[in-house]
Prior knowledge:
- The structure holds two protein chains of two kinds.
- Chain A is mainly alpha-helical.
- Chain A has 13 helices and no strands.
- Chain A has helices at 2-21, 40-78, 82-102, 115-119, 128-138, 160-168, 182-206, 211-216, 228-251, 274-292, 304-320, 327-330, 334-361.
- In chain B, the strands form eight sheets. A four-stranded antiparallel beta sheet of chain B has the order 3-2-1-28.
Amino acid sequence: MPGRAEGGKLRVHRLAALLLATGFAFPAFAQEATPPELTDANVGAVMAQAVDDVIRPGYRAFHASAGALAKATAAFCKAPSEDSRKVLDAAFRQAVTDWGRIEIVRIGPVLDDNRFERILFYPDRKSTGLKQVQALLQQPDEADTDPANMAGKSVAIQGFGALEFVLYGTGSETLMSAPESFRCRYGAAIATHIETTAGQLAAAWDAPDGAQRDWKHPGPQNPVFRTGKEAMTALLGILVHGAEAVRDQRIETFYRNGGTARPKSAVFWRSGNTWTSIDANFEGLQTLFDKSGIAEFVDPGHTSLSGNVDFVLTALRNVVRTADPDIEKAVTTPAEQQKIAFLLVNTRDLIVSLNGDFGGAIGLGAGFSFADGD
Amino acid sequence: MRTAATASALLDRRAFLRMAGAAWLATLGPRAAFALARADAVFASGCMDHAGRFAIAVLSEDGTVIDRTPLPARSHGMAYSLATNHLVAFARRPGTFALVIDRSGKTAPVTIAAAEDRHFFGHGCFSPDGRLLYASENDFDANRGVIGLYDARDGYRRIGEYSTYGIGTHDLSVSDDGRLLIAANGGIETHPDFGRTKLNLHHMEPSLALIDAATGGLVQRHALPEKLRQLSTRHVDLDEKGRIWFACQYEGPRNDLPPLVGHFAKGEDLTFLSLPEETTIGLANYVGAIAVNRREGLVGLTSPNGGRFVVLDAESGRVLREEDVPDAAGIAAAPHGFAVSSYEGRFAGRRADVAWDQHIAGLAPPR
């Protein structure tokens, strides 16, 4: 549809011009802003909002949608039909969305016991996971349909990637032909295992003496954050690393400006949920930025810094939502390529702004705020 | 961090100017040339400007930026050869490039691309004669550290690799006689598919290894004891006696007070320094860089997390000086004490309009 493509092109150009006009890329006044004093009280309040209003609800929502996905998969297996399939597709999309919103949190309990990789083993550059799932399907073993056995197996066969192949990959058309097929029951086991892992995450954050206590009360005896500044650095780190992950691990895995496109390397390309997932990532970042109140630390005279972050996140989401879910087409159509280029350029600016002037304006020092392992 | 420069004879300002070459000097503006003319030492450091552009900068002793060479992405450590006047900036891990700059301007910069299935891991060093470049690298599929060997006389062609006998290799140095390579195996597993996420914090394997530079054979390896298995051994430097000083970053509970610095030598066990509690707290369980001032017998430490700069007496291990330096980044030996930089742009007391990255290389040793 040339008209639509042309419209998309114009929209992207208009947005790019608008972003330029706002002077989004590194306004030079951050150093002039008076950074706030980070106290136990004001840091504790922001951390509490981040935990109670964003992170905990995020994991609980993911747990709920993972539960709905497990139910929908089991119901579809029991009675495959157009209707049960529609319910399953919707449940899959919702679970991908809810995970996408909270997967930006790459710190805390999700790193324990390889939970992150158990939920989503991606990217799978060498098709390790795909080969394992294909081998498993070719040599049916009833043990693989028991969710209780999942935790002891390779992370590559127990998360969204494996489930997506089962439901949308080569051979998935056979799911409609007979109830309770091995393939379907293996898929149901994966979905149940995702629900279990999601439940563990929600519980780890909801426990009064667990992660939330450590995050809300930095101090000398705290095993996670000794000072308020460390806690704030971690919170800003979620935003910066989350934006980096969208660009480096979600978009550039299948498309680089001037590079070779690899549409079949895109996350959730089989189910057409690539942009659903990426939009959810941006939404998660925006929700954390807005609801945590981290922007309240910015000097009142320089609130445009926060406005710019919000503005760019909104612009990114607006473009993502118009991107073609057919990734093969998205990487070969000029108008669609422009959208992806827009996303790459502006996620970079988002990272620079958060890590630079915004970090400086909230008292964390502009520049390399994250001494994360070097 | 260590450069071949510190292992060589003292170099005065005139010698540096002679080696730097007229071509390079001609590129300097009047202010920069003035700064260089009165400099007693020069340094290099990675940096990022306000537009998010990365570069490697050369500075005078007082922190004046003399020139900048653009980089395609963020760098980390550097290696410098006094013998060839080549400076190398290594990409931040997991990196795919290293940029070689001929400071004499005789040859064009060389970009080394990471080998198939290997990534640069932030540091490296030259053999004393400058003929070989050793790079800290990672073999992700096998989850093991390797040392990439590059022939400086053949366009930095990769001619082989050695094992580091550990995982998560970060800093890499060489003994003064060039016979031993020293690998700081931080012990943390990462994979490019998961960015910089630490994948094995509950079963880390930190170690320090001495490797035969001629054969790649293991000479000596020190795995950290079980109670310190979350103590990542990340940076090293050598003192006048050839002792290897190492600095650590602790991945365990934040309210622990682990030892953060120590030393060892060939044939010796590891010795951890017992720093005062307030010093350990000040360093925030995270030493970002270490440097030895051989002439003055000092060991310097910086911690960006703690915003602290600490000077130790190399002989006694006693703390001589502690100073608050917000976002303290790199450190290198200076004519007197150390040059210290910060993420917020401070370098030896001067403020530049860039964020300095984690390390400083000395391009000429203190007189």
